[in-house]
Amino acid sequence: MTDWTDRIPQAARDYLEGRRLDEVECIVADIAGVARGKAMPASKFRFQDRFFLPNSIFLQTITGEWTDNPMGAFTEPDMILVPDFSTATAAPWTADWTLQIIHDVEDQQGNPVPIAPRNVLKRVVQLYEAEGWKPVVAPEMEFFLVARNTDPNQPIIPPMGRSGRRAAAKQAYSMSAVDEYGKVIDDIYDFAELQGFEIDGILQEGGAGQVEINLAHGDPVELADQIFFFKRLIREAALRHDCFATFMAKPIEGEPGSAMHIHQSVIDIETGENIFSDEKGGETEAFLHCIAGLQTHLPAVIALLAPYVNSYRRYVPDFAAPINLEWGRDNRTTGLRVPISGPAARRIENRLAGMDCNPYLGLAASLACAYLGLKEKRMPKAECLGDAYMSAEDVPVNLGDALDLLSESAKIRDVLGHEFCAVYEAVKRNEYKEFLQVISPWEREHLLLNV
């Protein structure tokens, strides 16, 4: 083993024990959360401490088109990629012995590139730390296993289970439903173990072939790294068994959507105590301030939590997704839920984020709202004690409206970074314009001969 391998996590070292490392994938997450970078022989990686990629990777839309740089000329200067060895993990689905390593993105002067999503999340975490706080998150990941779909003109359908029947909807928490595609789940567990990831639990959700994976609570950047890796390993596990895994917010008409619920709390760095609970175990004003911050500022970050036109199909009543920013204790109809817990684990569950969001940006956005709440010290609206679907909708209904709210929020832009917000908005408006140029089957069916 080479010297640098002594700096990687134990799980990665165990993976390489007695074997020769063949390849290293040097990766970063782009605006969409797609892994970009370079793969190289381990023998070459050994002698390099940095790598180069053009900043244009953060100007690319989900369709592969390029957005004009709103911050200046499109000259594509090189950024410096510096390996973060703490992220080194196996790529166990490859034919050879490969490690993936997430890289920090710097400019040529050694400063963090402000438009890199991982740096955006780090920026928000540092704002907490400057106040003596440490944010803690626990994400939930929902996704669908679906039949292979090689023709985008055809609807997505559930996968075939081991029984020879397609996965059925309305089987939430059913163990036999999970067993229908148990081999995929087994590979997910195996890949996660080889990569050193802890799964808190896997369960069947309400949609046909819909699965939820819960992750243990921890540091926001580390958890975002895990979700970034998890999306890839889940896709690879599905492909092994002749199906696709999709993280689209709403892949199947008439089925629930897929969320990335974010449980969040804040620890006092000096005492190690949860600032949401007082000495007697009761709720603190800081807890209520965070709820108020989420209620006040979440509309301005919906464009990060729901980043595509498809994302807004999830926000419909009675489909297990919120339509407003009401809050309540143990109330799953609200956008902000307070789960049952002891004082040390008191937290807020943000149910707005879709699983299609970039995990770094989704966590950064939610934490930014709570941070502003702690600074502004407002009080939330009265708790919703009934069905929140009976209350008015107060979240954007499409990507264009969401981007307008982001562009108008000076406070959110201050927290996330003005340059990042400008680039993000430019990329998303380009995607939205591309979508509006596509004529849908609904339009052809109902408008062609009737209007």
From TrEMBL:
Keywords noted in UniProt: Ligase, Magnesium
Presence of the UniProt keyword Ligase in the record: yes
SUPFAM superfamilies: Glutamine synthetase, N-terminal domain (SSF54368), Glutamine synthetase/guanido kinase (SSF55931)
Any one Gene Ontology BP term: glutamine biosynthetic process
Taxonomy, superkingdom: Bacteria
GO molecular function terms noted in the UniProt entry: glutamine synthetase activity
SMART domains found in the cross-reference section: Gln-synt_C
Record-given protein name: Glutamine synthetase-5
